[in-house]
Design goal:
Helix content is 53%, strand content 10%. With 207 residues, the protein is α+β, with helices and mostly antiparallel strands.
Length: 207
């Protein structure tokens, strides 16, 4: 994929608001129920074959294995993929960060630490979202397969903290980097919209 410049605004990420409590309750009930993995897999296939446009826009953004692979082996190998697919019914489309790489590289010029900048642009590891909501029994099933590198989500504290910091930015900081005005304005709009759903988390899927 082409590397994005700091001022690039080509959209290469999508965002949704996730009802994380309801989703994890539903996921855990299926996983720990009498049918276990079969119930999780069958629900993933049902969503994959459905006609809901929001579900399809979300699934199209994911890099996951296909139902052909799922039917070949109903095992924990696909559990992380199914975890991500089963989020679909609990999503509401929202504003997206345009050019997350531009945001990641630009925020340090305005005083953010590189780690903070990367988190706001790409989100936290999905594993930490599962750790927050799943029981030990359900989480142990995921931990074996999850690992790191599956981003991303932001909670209300992440969003409101970023908004507060952006509101306090000294306009003079943009004199040397005027290209960051549009980048920060876009991020502010995304986080401001996300803050209107305090009982949800912001889910980010980037290229």
């Amino acid at each position: 994929m082409r590397e994005e410049g700091v001022g690039t605004l080509a959209v290469n990420s999508q965002s949704w608001m996730l009802d994380s409590i309801a989703f994890h309750h539903d996921f855990e009930q299926r996983l720990l129920g009498p049918e276990g993995l079969v119930a999780v897999r069958d629900r993933a296939v049902q969503l994959w074959d459905g006609v809901d446009p929001v579900v399809h826009s979300y699934l199209a953004a994911l890099v996951v294995s296909s139902p052909e692979d799922w039917y070949r082996a109903c095992e924990d190998t696909h559990l992380v993929d199914w975890y991500r697919v089963l989020m679909a019914p609990w999503l509401t489309p929202t504003r997206s960060i345009q050019g997350p790489d531009a945001l990641r590289r630009g925020l340090p010029h305005l005083g953010w630490h590189a780690t903070e900048s990367r988190r706001l642009a790409r989100g936290r590891e999905l594993l930490t979202l599962a750790e927050r909501h799943l029981s030990v029994t359900a989480l142990d099933r995921l931990l074996v397969r999850f690992g790191w590198g599956h981003k991303g989500w932001l909670d209300l504290d992440d969003v409101t903290g970023a908004l507060d910091r952006m509101r306090k930015l000294d306009p003079r900081k943009f004199r040397e980097h005027p290209e960051l005005v549009a980048v920060v304005e876009n991020a502010f709009e995304v986080f401001e919209s996300a803050a209107t759903k305090p009982d949800h988390v912001l889910l980010i899927v980037s290229d």
